Amino acid sequence: MTMPVPNTPDEQTLVRIRGLTTVLSGKKVFDGLDLDIPRGKVTAIMGPSGTGKTTLLKHITGQMRGDAGEVRVDGRNVPELGREQLYALRERIGYLFQNSALLTDFDVFENVAFPLRQHTRLPEVLIRNIVLTKLQAVGLRGAAALEPSELSGGMARRVALARAIVFDPMLILYDEPFVGLDPIALNQVLKLIRTLNQTLGITSVLVAHELEAIKQVADHVYLIANGKVVAQGDPKTIADDGSPWTRQFFGGEADGPVPFQYPAGDYAEALGFSRSSP
Amino acid sequence: MNAQVGRDNIVTQSLGQIGDCGLFLLRILAAVPRSMRHALETVRQLWFVGAMSLTIIMVCGLFVGMVLSLQLYHVLSIFGGTAATGTVVAIAIYRELGPVVTALLFAGRAGTSITAEIGLMRATDQIAAMELMAVDPLAYVVAPRFLAGLIAMPLLCCVFCAMGIFGGHLVGVTWLGIDNGTFWSNMTATVDVWQDIVNGVIWKSLAFGAVVSLIAVFQGFTAPPTSEGVAYATTRTVVASSIAILALDFVLTAFLM
């Protein structure tokens, strides 16, 4: 069951994906996926592990190209962009990696300052002020001089978040932003995502599994499975829409439209037992 | 039959790797003008692959010169030609041992660390993070390391040669008693600046520097993002560099002689 995606005008839609089909290692990850990310909203992408949520973000940033379909960001079809155009687009996109991906040669301050140093010729005083502002926002101004190896997983994620927002981008893509955060940091990150969205109008896309956190911050949720959007709606009510997809996913049930087991041969045969007929 | 197929696969894979490496070189050369924006990074890499390799190059150069002088003295003394010790030491070092041994040491010291560093950057998504921050990793990571290797190799080779000659002098003159004037005058009379210094030291070490740096950055950039992948890529850098240095040395010697 694929939920239809309404045709909204481009002014209201920052990311528009139509008919995206991607095959990786013989497996169809996306099968004609249609999806819209509205401007100035927080949109969550959810789905069982291995359904291609991170792959979807890679399509939006042009790291991957699909076999068919189009991925439009701010009106431009990403797969058709040349290197210069793609880099110009990426300067306006922030990306938070699952594993933070901090540059290990630099300390926390220089990690956050890196995009500013690469793309601007701002005076050092201004760079320092911007970086400290962003670090203050994620609660790590005091950790500016630390090396990435001295940070915990949650701290590294917050530094990566400060780096992702250092340019005040039009779009931020968060790949599993809540993993490894303690309740205090989680709450602060949720507030930060919401503040960035409300004060600067930044569009946010969250790939996450934590429904309670998503309920607090997201305006819209897409549930992806079997290469398509199988459910979408308000995060507060999507779990109760009654579809077998949402019932299985949000209820944590092993049986349902999404198989828990990865496709495999006969179990008894794999264990070396032969089935004898009665 | 299977062995034949296996051999074909190895040959095909090797040829494919050489082709990929050549295409990667073109991408690096295309990225060199863009890497000028990151000149400081090139200087930093020059310090790392060049200055930090000085100790091993100097120590090895000294001992190569010393052992060469010792061996030659004993062989030449059979024919009463110990006066030629300095000449032969110098020619052997300038033409062959200097560039080749420096390149082999460079591959082991700097090449492996370049491969491991880039491979780990890829495995930990640092390369992907740069791409997403609209920073070209070829211009920021690869080209500076390639250029640094290209610049550092001839300089390190000169240091190696100087230390080799010093080691040869130390053993030949100070220890074994060859006349100091004979040692230097025979050497300066025989060594040809163009044939031995330019062709031997400069051109060869430039070529070796380019090859070792290319192999190191290529292996790092294309390493599978796993610990085993990075380890295997690092090993391949040493193996491929060593073979390439010795094969290229023969070709260059044949052309430059």
Describe how the helices and strands are arranged.
The complex is a heterodimer of chains A (278) and B (257).
Chain A: E1 13-24, E2 27-38, E3 42-46, H1 53-60, E4 68-73, E5 76-77, H2 83-90, E6 93-96, H3 108-119, H4 124-137, H5 153-164, E7 171-175, H6 183-200, E8 203-207, H7 211-217, E9 220-225, E10 228-233, H8 244-251, H9 267-270
Parallel strand pairs in A: 3-8, 3-9, 6-7, 7-8
Antiparallel strand pairs in A: 1-2, 1-4, 4-5, 9-10
Chain B: H1 2-35, H2 39-49, H3 54-78, H4 85-123, H5 126-132, H6 137-175, H7 180-190, H8 193-221, H9 227-256
Helix pairs in contact in B: 1-6, 2-6, 3-4, 3-6, 4-6, 4-7, 4-8, 4-9, 6-8, 8-9
Could you walk me through the main structural features you see in this protein, from its secondary elements to its overall organization?
- The complex is a heterodimer of chains A (278) and B (257).
- Chain A is α/β, with parallel strands linked by helices and 278 residues long.
- Chain A has 9 helices and 10 strands.
- Helix content of chain A is 33%, strand content 23%.
- In chain A, the strands form 2 sheets. Chain A has a 6-stranded mixed sheet. Chain A has a 4-stranded antiparallel sheet with strand order 2-1-4-5, covered by helices on one side.
- In chain A, helix 3 packs across helix 4, helix 3 (108-119) runs parallel beside helix 5 and helix 4 crosses helix 5.
- Residues 1-9 of chain A have low confidence and may be disordered.
- By secondary structure, chain B is an all-alpha fold.
- Chain B has one domain (38-256).
- Chains A and B meet through helix 2 and helix 3 of A and helix 5 of B.
- Chain B: Keywords: Cell inner membrane, Cell membrane, Membrane, Transmembrane, Transmembrane helix, Transport.
- Chain B: It is a multi-pass membrane protein.
- Chain B: Belongs to the MlaE permease family.
- Chain B: InterPro entries: ABC_MlaE_roteobac, MlaE_Permease, Permease_MalE.
